[in-house]
Amino acid sequence: xxxxxxxxxxxxxxxxxxxxxxxxxxxxxxxxxxxxxxxxxxxxxxxxxxxxxxxxxxxxxxxxxxxxxxxxxxxxxxxxxxxxxxxxxxxxxxxxxxxxxxxxxxxxxxxxxxxxxxxxxxxxxxxxxxxxxxxxxxxxxxxxxxxxxxxxxxxxxxxxxxxxxxxxxxxxxxxxxxxxxxx
Length: 183
Description:
This protein is mainly α. The protein has helices at residues 16-24, 27-46, 53-63, 72-104, 110-133, 142-162. It has six helices and no strands. Helix 2 (27-46) runs antiparallel to helix 4 (72-104), helix 4 (72-104) crosses helix 5 (110-133) and helix 5 (110-133) packs antiparallel against helix 6. 16% of the residues are buried.
């Protein structure tokens, strides 16, 4: 009957959720999901004082110290573009890592993986700027959220152009370890 909920009993020996739960226990799961989670942590760490303008300006001045002809105004302009490029790079990578996880591990179709990846990238951008708004040395900005989301959209466009999905594995009957053939 359409719309009815089928409840599976363990005695039946078949649970449709067991295949999904089994994929969560494999090392492959971690190779797909750990990178975007770690990258989110890096982004959120740099949304604190470590990523403040004062910190990045000091680093940039040190890097550009070998060019004596740069005026303070030029260094400030380079610093501005350096910081905005960091946003684009960070959120482009974040989008791609989320997309890779959804497409590669959960085998979501490209459109669904792209939408989930964009949504999670936007969520991290909002958390990032919200965190910055609460720190004295930083300032949260909706313009930076827009820049971050635009970077994720650019990564989505590049992914749509260049991504070649790998073929999905053919589902087969589950096998016990004792039933598998060794090469």
